[in-house]
Amino acid sequence: MLTLDRESKSALDYDDLNSSIQETFAAIDRFEWQAIEELSVMRDNCYYKDAGHKSFEDYCENELTKHGGYRRVRDLLRAKKVVDTLPIELRAHITKPSQTRFLLRLVKTPDKLHEVVARAAKEKPFPTACDFAQAVQLVAPTTKRTTKSEKSQTQLCNSVTVSSQSHPRYGESGVIEADAPNNSQQIVTFSDGERLLVNNADLDAAIVSPDRTYPKEYTEAIAALKEQHKLELERLEQELRIGLQAEVKARAEAQVSEQIQSLQQLYKQQKEQNIQLQQRLDEMEGLRKLSTENQQLHQRIQELEHAVEQRPSQEWGNTMTQQATKVLNKQVKLALEKTIDLRELALVPPKENAQECLRLMGMALKNLSVAMNNTQALVAAAIILGTSPTQSAIATRTEQLQLLPQAVREIRQVLARIQFTWQEFWAVAEKYEVIKADYWAELTTHETDLITQARKNSEQLTVNS
Q: How many domains does the chain have?
């Protein structure tokens, strides 16, 4: 037998599945006969008394209630009596105890029992209960058909087929083995042993649909009851339809309300993002203007340096050259004084994009200190950039701060996800660990709280595991 699961279902083919089904049904029949043998041992050796049961019937009712109790055990033991009466070559044709129901009355006449089984086995190698019943009617027919209960027996042991396509057993054949519980339904036993209550309208046999006649007054009362029942069903259907419509409407309204709330939340988030983007654009525009001014200043310094290199000191003799020298010294002095005054920005940084402004100013001071070979400009650049007043330290710090916009952008991309983990954040932050203090100052309080909470959640999961 196969053990089916979701992964193995798709890998099955017809041969494997068919073999498994055959083995499963054979095991069911084998275990049923094994249960009969064990019940016989329990009864014949009175083992039930060891547990305090007064009789075998008392044992069956107390211990085997969920399996049908004494009534089912009695039927199983009767099936064993039928099989034991048959010769060995005919026993194989009876595969399950339910097939022996109509053979039980022939146990006292073994010859007829042998003939019935042999006749049924001649038609089919594995006859059904209906086949045995028909063989019994041919070999040893019953003649008493007088009472009402006996009249219903004419319907028994008739093979019927489910003809209604809407029935789950459509196209399958079965046998009627019991009295009809009412005039519109029959108890049908199918070939797999399952007994179902089937409507007469779903069966193809006309014998299961008898028309019962009633007196006129009963007929009128029945018609009135049917009409009342019909009206009641229509009323219930209407109420059910109204209730379902109301439920569907309420569910739809709840879904619409939930969608509206989601859209409002999304609109709010989009609006906040637009505001942040606009602020970012304004900051970038200011930085662009500052960079342009810095480039113009640097170009002016280069022009002045070039002019100095073109004219040696001994050629500055005329008035025009002296005036140019004064202008040059004045412009350099003003530029140097402005540059040195920028050191105050290190103590009171600007409110808008402070780190980026300080970085650009520090780079400008560094370039100015190189161009003018001015120690004060170098110190100012080191103060603004937060490093040692050396060319190598300032150059390293400048390279680090150039990564700051990219670091902040990548970190915010991680934080923008609906659910991010500490590992996802650390995979990005680890690359910019050297400027952690810088990008941490750029993040908002809400963003730093998210990172802190993600780290706590990761530590908690590690402790629990």
A: 2
Residue 206 lies in a domain: yes
Whether 386 has a pLDDT exceeding 80, the answer reads no
Predicted confidence (pLDDT) at residue 132 exceeds the cutoff of 60:
yes
Distance between CA atoms of residues 315 and 224, nearest Å: 134
With respect to residue 191, please indicate whether it lies within any of the assigned structural domains: yes
399/432 Cα distance (integer angstroms): 12
Most confident of 23-27, 349-353, 440-444: 440-444
User: Are 77 and 43 in contact, with CB atoms under 8 Å apart?
Assistant: yes
pLDDT for 108-131, tens place per residue? 888 888 888 888 888 887 788 888
276 occurs within a structural domain: no
Rounded to a whole number, what is the largest CA-CA distance in the chain?
155
Residue 331, judged by CB atoms within 10 A of its CB (0-12, 13-18, 19+), counts as middle
**Looking at residue 101, what DSSP letter applies?**
T
Sign of the dihedral defined by the CA atoms of residues 95, 96, 100, 102, in that order: negative
Could you tell me the two tokens for 145? 């058909």
Boundary residue ending a domain (188, 210, 232): 210
Q: List residues bridging with 176 in a β-sheet.
A: 188
Give counts: helices (H), strands (E), the chain: 18, 4
Structural domain boundaries enclosing 186: 150-210
- Predicted TM-score (pTM) of the model is 0.33
Is 232 inside a domain boundary? no
Burial 98-117 (b: 16+ CB within 10 A, else e): bbbbbbbebbeeeebbbbbb
Residue 331 sits in the same domain as residue 426: yes
The closest alpha carbon to 107, from 141, 87, 90, 82, belongs to 82
**Under a CB-based contact definition with an 8 Å cutoff, are residues 172 and 81 in contact?**
no
Please tell me which residue, 351 or 394, carries the higher pLDDT value.
394
